[in-house]
Each structure stands twice: as C-alpha cells, then as structure tokens.
Amino acid sequence: MVLRFSFLTMSLLLALFGCSAQDAVVSYPTEVITPIDAPFPMPALVRPTFPDKVFDIRQFGAVEGGTVKNTLAIRSAIAKAASEGGGHVLI
Q1: How far is CA 14 from each of CA 9, 18, 46, 90, rounded to the nearest angstrom?
Q2: Which terminus of the chain faces fewer neighbouring Cβ atoms within 10 Å, N or C?
Q3: How many Å apart are CA 80 and CA 41, to the nearest integer?
Q4: CA 51/CA 85 separation, integer angstroms
Q5: What pTM, to 2 d.p., does this model score?
C-alpha cells in the first residue's frame, strides 16, 4: 500500500491550518511520467490512483493530545484502508 503523504505532513496541515479531511487530501498531476532510460526492459510508469475514502484514526480509537500512544489506531486505520482497496488515512 502506498500513502500519498507522510503522517507528519498530514498532522502539521491539520494542526496549523485546521483543515478538514477533504482539504488535506493531496492531489498529484495527471500528466504522463517521463519514461526512464533503463539499460533493461521496463514497463511504462503510471501514477497511482486512490479511492476517495478517508479513514480517520479517531474512528479507530485514537485520542488527541499527545498523552496516549495511538499506534494501534493508526495500524487499524491503515489495515482497514488496505482491506477496502485503498484510500486516505487521516492523522
């Protein structure tokens, strides 16, 4: 599974700008990726696409404030996203 943004980046966006889950979703351009001139046969590179689903770690038991370890909630949200074909994990 590939995440389109780091957890730290997402946390900072939400904390600094008060973004909603939809505001924090990162979009990449849809243009073609420049081919790589590799010395071996290689398939064309394609940008990944992600379903428009958001998995908020608070719905998996995360607690705000920094006094509780939320590792299990984050792992659970990632596992749920993976089992449903992908999406965005909101930290």
Answers
A1: 9, 5, 29, 9
A2: N
A3: 35
A4: 7
A5: 0.56
